[in-house]
Amino acid sequence: MTDAPREELHEYPAGSLTVEWRPGRCMHSGICARGLPLVFDPRRRPWVDTSQAEEAVIDAQVARCPSGALQIRRGDR
Q1: Is residue 52 a contact partner of residue 39, using CB atoms and an 8 Å limit?
Q2: 3-state secondary structure of 51
Q3: CA distance 22 to 8
Q4: Residue 77, pLDDT above cutoff 70
Q5: What secondary structure letter does DSSP report for 48?
Q6: For residue 23, which of 48, 4, 50 has the smallest C-alpha distance?
Q7: Domain annotation for the chain: domains and CATH numbers
Q8: Whole-angstrom Cα distance, residue 13 to residue 54?
Q9: What whole-number distance in Å separates Cα of residue 70 and Cα of residue 54?
Q10: What gap in Å lies between CA 70 and CA 59, rounded to an integer?
Q11: For residues 57-63, average pLDDT
Q12: Which residues touch 25 (CB under 8 Å, ≥6 apart)?
């Protein structure tokens, strides 16, 4: 039995939470960038800058991601 390949994951700390981005799931709807362009800017590298908004605002925008490519992890997990 072989292990399944690991899904690519990028992490962006934001205080007590971390924004997780799984590019393989991203459907490029643009909801993140249109809703919070200072945090999510696909022309910038890295494209997520969590210093540009409060945690609660980032959390609310990530919750709007239709594909689940963006998710929030709270605390140390």
Answers
A1: yes
A2: helix
A3: 6
A4: no
A5: B
A6: 48
A7: 10-74 (3.30.70.20)
A8: 12
A9: 17
A10: 10
A11: 98
A12: 7, 67, 68, 69
Task: Give the Cα-Cα-Cα angle 39, 48, 26 (nearest 5 degrees).
Answer: 110
- Provide the residue count of the chain: 77
Average pLDDT rounded to a whole number, residues 44-73: 97
Q: Among candidates 23, 75, 45, 52, which has minimal Cα distance to 61? A: 52
Q: What residues contact 52, with CB distance under 8 A and at least 6 apart?
A: 36, 38, 39
Asked whether the predicted pLDDT for residue 1 surpasses 70, the reply is no
How many percent of the chain have pLDDT more than 90? 87
Q: Return the pLDDT at 25.
A: 97
**Mean pLDDT of the 40-59 span:** 97
- What's the pLDDT band for 75 if we cut at 50, 70, 90? confident
The encoded tokens of residue 65 equal 């991601």
3-class DSSP state of 38: coil
